Amino acid sequence: MLHRGILRRVTGASVVVLLLAAFVAFYVADRAGAGAARCQQHRVDARERAATVTGDGERVLVVGDSWSVGLGQDDLRRSWAAELSGEVHVRGFSGSGFSAGASHCGRVSFHDRAATALGVRPALVVVQGGLNDFDQPTRAVDQGFRDLMADLAGHRVVVVGPADAPLRSWAVPRVDDRLEVLSERYGVPYVRTSDLDLDYLDDRLHLTEDGHREFGEAVAERIADVEPARPAVLRR
């Protein structure tokens, strides 16, 4: 027979365990709900930005992440891509990257979205990203890049690498270097942006309005210097 003091301690411990379990369950459910809501908002933003075409001239397709979408801006139409020359079509999705695991919102990697994005029949494809691949294995980045190049074979392509966003600054050099190696391997020009000193929002990851303009102007200038005269080819 249990002593009353021991019984009280056991009962008290059980209550604590049950409360902790309930808290954990609530936390997990809340996080799942927040994640679903965030992904849904990303889809809404992606559709809104895709519906906006800026400029005129040669048709340019931008496949990118939240920077291309304009996340954090009051007007998504003013994302950096609007600074590019030509008739610019943006197909971006916040949180996406070269690797399949960069986003938790399903199949939204650059490769997963490229085939549909090419429906605009671009003369030039600009792929912008890398910040969301910061924690992905090199092999995952390699595979995603290879699949993307297969999608874009026969098109003129430029790859624009990640800027040195303070929140992920520690990971930028690895991703930047890898994307440059892969771009050379698949015969497409690579534009580094990690040297740019840009203005960021308080989250230290996304650009302010001025930051978008500065980034867009720099990318437009650098693309003009390296823009490919020939379509990309798939190299196995």
Summed up:
The protein has 236 residues and is an alpha/beta fold. Helices cover 45% and strands 11% of the residues. It has a six-stranded mixed beta sheet.
Protein described:
It comes from Nocardioides flavus (ex Wang et al. 2016). Residues 62-213 form the SGNH hydrolase-type esterase domain. This is SGNH hydrolase-type esterase domain-containing protein. Pfam families: Lipase_GDSL_2. InterPro entries: SGNH_hydro, SGNH_hydro_sf. The protein is α/β, with parallel strands linked by helices and 236 residues long. The model is unreliable at 15-34 (pLDDT under 50). α3 packs parallel to α4 (138-152) and α4 (138-152) runs parallel beside α5. It has a single domain (43-226), classed as Rossmann fold. The chain has six helices and six strands; from the N terminus they run αββαβαβαβαβα. It has a six-stranded mixed beta sheet. α5 links the parallel β5 (157-160) and β6 (190-191). The chain is 45% helix and 11% strand.
